[in-house]
Automatic annotation (TrEMBL):
The keyword Membrane applies. A 1,2-diacyl-sn-glycero-3-phospho-(1'-sn-glycerol) binds at residue 137. This is Phosphatidylglycerol--prolipoprotein diacylglyceryl transferase. Coiled coil: none annotated.
């Protein structure tokens, strides 16, 4: 049976010398979905919709560059002897944490230039970010990457996964854990949690920080299952960063509540929270 299993074609459209891969299409879908959700919520919160479009124009290229830099830094043993490979991003090698760092840094500067609250900007974007990540992981599925350790078909069937996922996890004669799926499902659940949280009396900034905590917590465990982790000595970089982000986020929430008394997420410019209908 295994000899008849063929992986899904990672190329969606082949135009002679130009090929468009499913990875790029899936990432683009994630970005569009994220933008539409952010635009809808920003109008409810009284922000100009154009803000997020303007932000994306800057954030997307900067995030890609930062994702590549992050990856190269922690794979420097290879790249220091292959400097020409650094710019060849089409050969693979980007890291989501690098992209998030680039996006947050861009948003902070953008908010200051536009003279708006970074926390409000980030809160509105939080559900968009996590659902985009959930969608984006399916790009890894198409590329048969970001998987876990070796396993058996019977184990995967025991998870009640559809055949197309099980078959795609059959790589060069071996079945692997679909860690891309575990993270995607965790992110979908996180998306639902964030939508619920933003309807409560949560303080401004805490929705975004809740996203950071939720994603980092799940990523810590998923990263421990992966076989392609970026390493920092004996430690997995993403696990170290996940712990750091959780601690810092909790500390920021506590500090802001004690020292700054931030307004509620749902509050209008006068600090009033509308009653739920």
């Amino acid at each position: 049976m295994e000899n008849q299993i063929k992986p899904l074609d990672p190329v969606a459209i082949d135009l002679g010398g130009l090929s468009i891969k499913w990875y790029g299409i899936i990432i683009a879908v994630g970005v569009v979905v994220a933008l539409l959700l952010a635009l809808r919520e920003s109008s409810k919160r009284g922000l100009d919709k154009e803000l997020y479009i303007d932000l994306l124009i800057w954030a997307i290229p900067i995030s890609i560059i930062c994702a590549r830099i992050y990856y190269v830094v922690f794979q420097w043993d290879f790249y220091k002897n292959n400097l020409d490979e650094i710019i060849k991003i089409w050969h693979g090698g980007i890291a989501i944490y690098g992209a998030l760092i680039g996006a947050v840094a861009t948003a902070i500067i953008f908010a200051r230039v536009k003279k708006i609250s970074f926390w409000q900007l980030a809160d509105i974007a939080a559900p968009s970010l996590i659902i985009a990540q959930a969608i984006g992981r399916w790009g890894n599925f198409m590329n048969q990457e970001a998987h876990g350790a070796e396993t058996t078909r019977s184990f995967l069937e025991g998870l009640h996964l559809p055949d197309f996922i099980i078959n795609q996890m059959y790589i060069e004669g071996t079945y692997y854990q679909p860690t891309f799926l575990y993270e995607s499902l965790w992110n979908v659940l996180g998306f639902i949690v964030l939508l619920i949280l933003r309807r409560t009396k949560i303080r401004r900034g805490e929705l975004f920080l809740s996203y950071v905590i939720w994603y980092s917590f799940g990523r810590f465990f998923v990263e421990g299952m992966r076989t392609d982790s970026l390493m920092w000595g004996d430690f997995r970089v993403s696990q170290v960063l996940a712990i750091l982000l959780i601690v810092v986020s909790l500390a920021i929430i506590a500090y802001r509540r004690i020292k700054q008394n931030p307004p509620y997420y749902m509050a209008d410019k006068f600090g009033n929270v509308p009653k739920r209908k």
